[in-house]
């Protein structure tokens, strides 16, 4: 029996899967922040290339992957699917556990799957520079690499707390030619207005997004690039789930439960949407679990409503689960999961009952990460550790029930740049944070009025 289930280079998927062709209810459309009317392609064209705008609203089931993007994918794709035999033994469970390992990408996470595609479509349309935000630094490093591949300049607004916690991510971005600014920065109006109120603001993804959008909107040769949440980003990530489906078939197994962590929803969606297709079309009984931190519990405690994607209110109004746009998540170590909203496509399948959501605290997920590392010899990203913790719980539940449950999770990235966080964990100094009810009400009280 194999441990690594591998595909050949020829088996890299040649089309992305578009869930909008199959889902029973489409999410409500994004609205213009001024007119509150649905945004059209012309509203988005100042900051996005038409190639991506068309993918935002595409309804065909399969979207071909351009050859130039495939050529980059082949640097590390197909990524392995691994049967976690040693973890199964350690847990003494009858469950069969598989994980898809996206940490083999040159950027160390799934994010290069969309970065490469986004850089390609921008290059096609003559854009010179991309501006973006980054939380933990994974997205910024992926986009820096992708921009270098396609000869674009790159400006990254990096959430200040991560800028200081993860200096090596900054170096990696600079090595690939990007300019990196700690956000809030004094480069933009959005950044300066936050600094005026709180010069020591740790920043958040919401603030950094405002800065990058403003930068793109005020420079003709510059576009904006987002690493999660939008439909086209989720679309690009389906290459992960499509490979996993082929690998599960090769292993002769079918998942009972599919698990991923959620920051903005892209790795989870990319992993699970191709399997959800089978549930929509063939009535498969698979369960799907989306895992988030208790410190930023968007799906488990947020409201499903219209909100801005950023703090300053520059983005369209997006219909999603949200904690409120000025919700400032505490500085947990899974920086990539500190976002107040989630992808509308994911929120819709959660609201419609196809996907369960679960939240875990920081200490629990690091316990699971270390248990996983001891068994499988991979140090996971703290974000991915949320999925691991859930997989472990499912495996223990299967043991209780005496059930040979098949558990498949996405190991979205490695944690080699997160050793500072592991250091804090090993020193016994990690703190759990549960969002107090008052804080939730405070942030939600400022939701924009739509009707
Ligand atoms: C960015 C990131 C996440 C969270 O982002 P999603 O869009 O929710 O996937 C999760 N894991 C890793 C390793 C990341 O870099």
Short descriptors:
binds pyridoxal-5'-phosphate, 15 strands, seven-stranded mixed beta sheet, alpha/beta, Rossmann fold, 16% strand, single chain, four-stranded parallel beta sheet, globular, 451 residues, 18 helices
Can you describe this structure?
It is a single chain. The protein has 451 residues and is an alpha/beta fold. The chain has a domain at 4-8 and 67-108 and 231-444: Rossmann fold, CATH 3.40.50. Helix content is 42%, strand content 16%. The chain has 18 helices and 15 strands. The chain has a seven-stranded mixed beta sheet, sandwiched between helices. Strands 8-7-6-9 form a four-stranded parallel beta sheet, with helices on both faces. Strand 10, helix 12 and strand 11 form a beta-alpha-beta unit. Helix 5 packs across helix 11 (231-251), helix 9 packs antiparallel against helix 10 and helix 11 packs across helix 12. The radius of gyration is 20 Å and the shape is globular. The model has no long low-confidence stretch (mean pLDDT 95). Bound molecules: pyridoxal-5'-phosphate. The site of pyridoxal-5'-phosphate (PLP) has 20 residues, from helix 6, helix 12 and helix 16. Residues 109, 111, 138-139, 228, 261-268, 336-337, 381, 383-384, 412-413 line the site of pyridoxal-5'-phosphate.
């Amino acid at each position: 029996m194999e441990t690594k289930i591998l595909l050949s280079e020829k088996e890299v998927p040649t089309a992305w899967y578009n869930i909008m062709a199959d889902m029973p209810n489409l999410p409500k459309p994004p609205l213009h922040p001024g007119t509150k009317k649905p945004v059209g392609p012309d509203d988005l064209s100042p900051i996005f290339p038409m190639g991506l705008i068309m993918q935002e609203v595409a309804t065909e089931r399969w979207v071909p992957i351009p050859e130039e993007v495939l050529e980059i994918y082949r640097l590390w794709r197909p990524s392995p699917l691994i049967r976690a035999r040693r973890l199964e033994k350690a847990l003494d469970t009858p469950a069969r556990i598989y994980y898809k390992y996206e940490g083999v990408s040159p950027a160390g996470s799934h994010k290069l799957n969309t970065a490469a595609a986004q850089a390609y479509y921008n290059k096609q349309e003559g854009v010179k520079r991309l501006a973006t935000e980054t939380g933990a630094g994974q997205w910024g490093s992926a986009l820096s690499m992708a921009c270098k591949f396609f000869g674009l300049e790159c400006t990254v607004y990096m959430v200040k707390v991560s800028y200081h916690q993860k200096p090596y991510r900054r170096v990696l971005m600079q090595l690939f030619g990007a300019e990196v600014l700690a956000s809030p920065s004094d480069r933009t109006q959005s950044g300066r207005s936050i600094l005026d109120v709180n010069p020591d603001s740790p920043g958040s993804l919401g603030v950094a997004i405002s800065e990058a959008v403003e930068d793109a909107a005020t420079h003709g040769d510059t576009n904006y690039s987002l690493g999660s949440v939008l439909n086209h980003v989720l679309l690009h990530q389906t290459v992960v789930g499509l490979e996993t489906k082929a690998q599960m078939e090769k292993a002769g197994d079918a998942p009972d439960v599919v698990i991923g962590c959620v920051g903005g929803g892209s790795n989870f969606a990319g992993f699970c949407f191709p399997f959800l297709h089978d549930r929509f079309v063939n009535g498969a009984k698979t369960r799907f679990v989306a895992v988030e931190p208790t410190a930023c519990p968007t799906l488990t405690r947020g409201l499903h409503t219209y909100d801005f994607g950023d703090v300053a209110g520059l983005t369209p109004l997006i219909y999603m689960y949200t904690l409120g746009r000025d919700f400032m998540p505490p500085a947990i170590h899974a920086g990539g999961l500190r976002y107040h909203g989630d992808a509308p496509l994911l929120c819709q399948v959660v609201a419609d009952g196809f996907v369960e959501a679960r939240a875990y605290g920081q200490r629990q997920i690091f316990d699971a990460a270390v248990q996983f590392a001891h068994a499988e010899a991979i140090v996971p990203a703290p974000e991915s550790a949320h999925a691991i913790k859930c997989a472990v719980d499912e495996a223990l539940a299967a043991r209780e029930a005496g059930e040979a449950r098949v558990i498949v999770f996405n190991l979205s990235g490695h944690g080699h740049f997160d050793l500072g966080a592991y250091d804090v964990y090993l020193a016994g100094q990690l703190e759990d944070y549960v969002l107090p009810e008052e804080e939730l009400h405070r942030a939600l009280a400022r939701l924009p009025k739509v009707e």
